[in-house]
Amino acid sequence: MTTASHVPETSHDTSMLPNIQLYRQQLLGMFINFMGFGAIPILISFLWRFWAFERLRYFYLAFFALTIALLVSRRYFGYRVQVTLLMIFLHTLAVYSALYWGHFSGGHLFFLASLLIGSLFLGMAGAIANWVVTAAVHTIVAYGTLVRHWSLVTLFHVPEVAFQSPTRWIGASITFIFGASTLVVLIHALQRRLETSVEDSVHLTQILDHERQRLVAQERRLQRRVRQIRAVSEIINSLSEILDPEQLVWEVVDQIQSHFALYYVGIFTVDPEFEYAILQAGSGEAGRKMVQEGYRLPLGGTSLVAWAITQRKMRVARDTRQDPGHFPNPFLPYTRSEVAIPLIARGEILGAITIQSDRPNAFDEEDLRTLQTLANSVALALANAQLFQRFQAQLREIEALHRRLFEQAWVEQETGEIVAEARGEPYPNRDPYHTEELTPVQQIRRPLLLYGHPVGELQLEVPVWSDGDEEILEGVLTSLANSLMVARLLGSLQSYVRREEIRYRLAERFSEALDFDLLARVTLQGLQEVFGFTEGWLRLDVESLLMADVAETPFSREGSSPSPAEDQGSTASEESA
Questions:
Q1: Average pLDDT, the chain
Q2: Rg, C-alpha atoms of the chain
Q3: Alpha carbons 75 and 85: distance in angstroms, whole number
Q4: Higher confidence at residue 439 or residue 493?
């Protein structure tokens, strides 16, 4: 059995994208390393400038501590804390740059960098919040530089270049806010498109992986089925050559156990009174011991074999420890699953075959169908062997009777001639080539009966007919009817073997063809070899086949509909021979 995990149907489920979050974390780590390790040498080089002003020393130390915290955040802090520290780092650089060099400085670049990174790492809600904070900080910095009396401005000793005209600051602020808003929206749209594309790729990859696993499982099942068909064909071929019932049942149990790697196989036949199922053959040492001890099961009991015989149906115990119908057998202590199949031939119940495994749930539906087919063949072969055995016994009886009648007729002939010679009387000649004293011929017509039903007629013209001749003719007709039955049964068995061989050969070829065109070509070639036709076609509706296959897979999306092109028609693959 094949199991598959369910894929979420929604196209925007973040749980579908664990890899995207992993990529975000990796990209965030790259940004942190680049910004942190890049800032340390710059801070060291600017140490003399900050240290010259006592009030800037605290800012320098705080910024240096922020840089160190940013670098160690990857190891000791979570994802959102890392993003927050990176945003604070960028905003600090943006504020310092804007205050020191004015609105044409690199401050806008740091502000835009914070918006870009926030949109990438915080999602839409985080990007909006980051945009609001960035716009507020930018406005405050612009206002502070214009007023000139803001404490932060005096703290940084802002040069005169930063105090540009209010018009330029206002224009720069409006341009920045508009550009930042556009950037946030575009980044979010691109991010959602990327997530959707990645999700579709993940979904398609999982579907392809599921299909690959399903094809592998189907190939394994097909190979297993081919091996089973080959085993059944070999067993049937060997059974068609055995006409001794005792030899046949032993051959059956041994071959089934070896070909199917089973724990135990046994064959039961019913007694004439239909009271017991008697074990006739069993595989392994345990089976031989049970046969020697005369192992039997009452048909009125609750065993699987008794139930299968009385109900004329297959009975399966997938777990013998939980099935009340399983009969515990001390000779077979490791049985965990069992199948009992009745042996029925021409409507007559002959017995049952029990097949056991030491694994629970060892038999699937394909196994059961294969075993049922094999049981039908075994029943037919066993019935033929029993019929042939009865025919041989009747033939020996007829030969013995014919020999006695011939001897009796010879004695009567000799005695009649002696008596006639003693009396001096002529004795009638029974030689058919002596035509001088032939009496008028008699027409003898007798029906050929098989199980009480007429299947033919025998007509003879004889000069003399006696009761002894009638008895001999009846024996011959009985032998002829039995021979006809055996010939018919052997013919049906050979026909069945031929059908199984054809199925096996085609199945073996199918297992090697895994695409539609090759499968169609192999099918037509195989059928042409069997039936000898001169021309044939096989048409496969590939579009419908694929749509049916997708409809069965658990990965198909709900609510999806075919495209107009798909509604207009389907593509067909046609192969001819």
A1: 72
A2: 48
A3: 13
A4: 493
478 and 529 part of one domain: no
Tokens 């005792």, residue? 246
Q: How far is CA 365 from the centre of its chain?
A: 12
Last residue of a domain, one of 210, 231, 251: 210
Residue 160: which pLDDT band, with cuts at 50, 70 and 90? Answer: very low
pLDDT given for residue 220 in this prediction: 84
**Mean pLDDT lowest for which of 57-61, 101-105, 323-327, 451-455?**
101-105
9 located within any domain: no
Rounded distance, CA 321 to CA 335, Å?
9
- End-of-domain residue from the set 210, 230, 258: 210
- Over residues 421-433, the pLDDT tens digits come to 666 655 555 544 4
Contact 526, 512 (CB under 8 A): no
One-character DSSP codes across 153-169: HHHHT--GGG---HHHH
For residues 203 and 96, state if they share a domain: yes
Asked if residue 106 and residue 68 are part of one domain, the reply reads yes
Contacts by 423-431, CB closer than 8 A, 24 or more apart: 430/464
107, two tokens:
């401050």
Over 84-101, what HEC string results? HHHHHHHHHHHHHHHHHH
The Cα-based distances of 513 to 142, 174, 322, 395 in angstroms read: 75, 68, 42, 53
> Domain for residue 460, yes or no?
yes
In this structure, is residue 371 part of a structural domain?
yes
User: Taking the C-alpha atoms of 484, 485, 486 and 487 in order, what is their torsion angle to the nearest 10 degrees?
Assistant: 50
3-state secondary structure of 552: helix
447 with 523, same domain?
no
Residues 444 and 531 in one domain: no
Residue numbers of the domain that contains 358: 242-385
Looking at the structure, tell me whether residues 299 and 404 fall in a common domain. Answer: no
**138 backbone dihedrals φ, ψ, rounded to 5°:** -65, -40
Residue type for position 373: T
The angle subtended at Cα 156 by Cα 139 and Cα 85, nearest 5°, is 65
Kindly report, residue by residue over 431-490, the tens digit of the pLDDT: 444 444 445 667 778 887 766 677 788 887 777 777 667 777 777 777 777 777 666 666
Q: What is the DSSP string of 123-152?
A: HHHHHHHHHHHHHHHHHHHHHHHHHS--HH
Task: Indicate the number of domains in the chain.
Answer: 4
Q: Which two tokens stand for residue 49?
A: 């400038």
Query: Any idea what the Cα angle at residue 374 is, between residues 370 and 376, rounded to 5°?
Result: 120
H helix or E strand, kind and range, residue 266? strand 264-270
Higher pLDDT, 58 or 281: 281
- Answer yes or no: do 474 and 342 share one domain: no
Tell me: do 191 and 246 sit in the same domain.
Answer: no
